[in-house]
């Protein structure tokens, strides 16, 4: 088995070079799917928008994810956003001559027990009211949908309208659309801090100088909490490592994404499968993990053995022990010290995924892994993101903590954040996603555990 460097890394050529302009209407921090889509909608609304990325567009989570665009299993308050996102994905795919691999293959979750079936039914009873096309399947229907599958599956849930795309192609392609719409994108340009004047956002201080702007959107993924902490705002966001393995090309076993409690897979455009284990997550423990522990108690208690703890994050990670928590704007920040967060995949897990896939589809024969990678997922205590204005920093909007499902929802989140930053029509109830929910005494409501 060989481990190739991930396709988007510091070695990737810069597509969007600086220098950045000295003034804009809105600055967007972070060139993942959320920042890119926000910049796109702002540019289309006629705003002078600058998108600043410390490394490469989609270098972090936004190219490392599984590529699932799924409504299935989403929080009730996100379902309508996913309906919107699916529509925007289709529109955007038609606006680029790059094949982003957008495919409606559906999502299927398999159940091994009646308990799991009951959890799916409960979710479906809530989601059906919002017009999703999900349906419960019995064991025979699973075998019909996924011929040759082995395993003691008692049934499952299936959503035919769910889609997928190839993230490492899709997000750079969306950046291309944003740039053509007028967004100024600059890679290799870290934002060190906000420029505050008279208690209000007046712009950002970057490693390449100051940019004046009365509105800033922070879409910094795993780095958002560190950025906000330096500005005096607490956000209980942590990062977890998730490993993905890519097989060599294999015959088609199913057109969509399929997951059970041990294995998730989906076909890729190159004929192979991406394999992962949705419930295998690893957390490097650092100061933020200790600080945020009270916020995460509900999540930990709901699945006490769900997280594998690792004692130290590698040097330069957002929650590494040695990472500075505060700095001044004229000092180099932790953001320029780590251009692209590129964690090592868990090699043991990669081997295990191949074995599990072979066991699920023995007729395929030995499964060869051609590459593997990992990403740091930015997660929140209740597994839903923050999309809000930051009251303590007037002029700042934050969109972060997408907790492992920001790729699919990204285009809708971008439209919403652009509206929030410009006083436009948000079109959804954002109460569930407010920043203050972790400090205003609200009870913790976990997103669905399916
Ligand atoms: C292995 C894995 C599987 C996943 N599977 C799925 C899936 O199937 N479906 C799905 O919907 N989601 C999935 N996700 C989650 C999804 O990838 C993320 O929710 C989404 O990409 C988050 O986008 P983002 O723009 O918020 O963050 P990111 O993509 O992490 O982008 C944030 C960017 O901000 C930049 N940045 C940070 N701070 C600064 C600064 N100060 N200055 C300049 N730039 C800065 C970073 O360099 C980074 O590029 C998965 C994630 C992983 C890791």
Describe the model.
By secondary structure, this protein is α/β, with parallel strands linked by helices. It has a single domain, classed as FAD/NAD(P)-binding domain, CATH 3.50.50.60. The chain is built from eleven helices and 21 strands. The strands form five sheets. It has an eight-stranded mixed β-sheet with strand order 5-6-4-14-15-16-13-19. A six-stranded mixed β-sheet has the order 8-2-1-12-21-20, covered by helices on one side. α8 links the parallel β17 and β18. The protein is globular, with a radius of gyration of 21 Å. The mean pLDDT is 95. The structure holds flavin-adenine dinucleotide.
List the helices and strands and how they pair.
Layout: E1 26-29, H1 33-44, E2 49-52, H2 61-64, E3 68-69, H3 79-94, E4 107-111, H4 114-127, E5 135-138, H5 139-145, E6 155-159, E7 163-164, H6 167-180, E8 184-186, E9 191-197, E10 200-206, E11 209-212, E12 215-218, H7 224-230, E13 238-247, E14 257-259, E15 264-267, E16 273-276, E17 281-284, H8 287-302, E18 307-310, H9 334-337, H10 347-360, E19 369-379, E20 386-389, E21 396-400, H11 406-422
Parallel strand pairs: 1-2, 1-12, 2-8, 4-14, 12-21, 17-18
Antiparallel strand pairs: 3-7, 4-6, 5-6, 9-10, 10-11, 13-16, 13-19, 14-15, 15-16, 20-21
Helix pairs in contact: 1-6, 1-11, 3-11
This protein binds flavin-adenine dinucleotide.
Number of domains: 1
Alpha-carbon Rg, integer: 21 Å
Overall helicity: 25-40%
Question: What name goes with the CATH superfamily?
Answer: FAD/NAD(P)-binding domain
CATH topological fold name: FAD/NAD(P)-binding domain
What's the arrangement of strands in the largest beta sheet?
5-6-4-14-15-16-13-19
Distance between termini?
32 Å
Helix count, DSSP H or I runs of 4 or more residues: 11
Q: What overall form do the CA principal axes indicate?
A: globular
How many DSSP-defined strands?
21
Please name the CATH architecture: 3-Layer(bba) Sandwich
Largest sheet: 8 strands, mixed
Report the β-strand fraction as a percent range.
15-25%
Uncertain parts: none
Mean pLDDT, rounded to whole units? 95
- Small molecules bound: flavin-adenine dinucleotide
């Amino acid at each position: 088995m060989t481990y190739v460097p991930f396709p988007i890394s510091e070695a990737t050529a810069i597509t969007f070079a600086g220098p950045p302009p000295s003034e804009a209407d809105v600055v967007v921090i972070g060139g993942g799917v959320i920042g890119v889509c926000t910049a796109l909608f702002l540019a289309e609304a006629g705003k002078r928008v600058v998108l600043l990325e410390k490394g490469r567009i989609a270098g972090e989570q936004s190219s490392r994810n599984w590529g699932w665009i799924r409504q299935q299993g989403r929080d009730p308050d996100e379902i309508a956003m996913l309906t919107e996102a699916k529509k925007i994905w289709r529109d955007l795919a038609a606006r680029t001559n790059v094949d982003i691999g957008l495919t409606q293959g559906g999502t299927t979750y398999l159940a091994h027990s009646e308990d799991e079936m009951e959890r799916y039914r409960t979710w479906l009873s809530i989601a059906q009211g919002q017009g999703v096309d999900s349906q419960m399947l019995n064991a025979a229907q699973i075998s019909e949908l996924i011929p040759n599958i082995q395993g003691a599956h008692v049934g499952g849930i299936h959503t035919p309208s769910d889609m997928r795309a190839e993230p490492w192609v899709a997000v750079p392609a969306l950046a291309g659309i944003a740039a053509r719409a007028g967004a100024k994108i600059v890679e290799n340009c870290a934002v060190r801090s906000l420029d505050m004047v008279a208690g209000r956002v007046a712009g950002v201080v970057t490693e390449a100088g100051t940019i004046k702007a009365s509105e800033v959107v922070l879409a910094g993924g795993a780095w958002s909490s560190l950025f906000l902490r330096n500005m005096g705002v607490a956000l209980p966001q942590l990062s977890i490592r998730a490993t993905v393995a890519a097989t060599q090309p294999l015959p088609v076993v199913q057109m969509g994404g399929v997951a059970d409690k041990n294995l998730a897979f989906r076909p890729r455009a190159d004929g192979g499968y991406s394999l992962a284990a949705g419930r295998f997550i690893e957390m490097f423990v650092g100061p933020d993990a200790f600080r945020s522990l009270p916020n995460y108690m509900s999540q930990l208690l709901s699945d006490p053995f769900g997280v594998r703890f690792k004692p130290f994050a590698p040097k330069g990670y957002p929650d590494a022990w040695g990472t500075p928590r505060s700095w001044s704007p004229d000092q180099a920040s932790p953001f320029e010290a780590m251009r692209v967060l590129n964690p090592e995949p868990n090699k043991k897990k990669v081997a295990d995924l191949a074995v599990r896939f072979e066991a699920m589809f023995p007729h395929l024969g030995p499964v060869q892994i051609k590459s593997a990678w990992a990403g740091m997922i930015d997660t929140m205590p209740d597994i839903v993101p923050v999309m809000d204005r930051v009251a303590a920093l007037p002029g700042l909007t934050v969109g972060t903590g997408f907790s492992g499902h920001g790729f699919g929802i990204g285009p809708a989140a971008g439209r919403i954040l652009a509206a929030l930053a410009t006083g436009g029509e948000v079109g959804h109830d954002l109460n569930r996603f407010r920043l203050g929910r972790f400090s205003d005494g609200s009870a913790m409501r976990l997103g669905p555990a399916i």
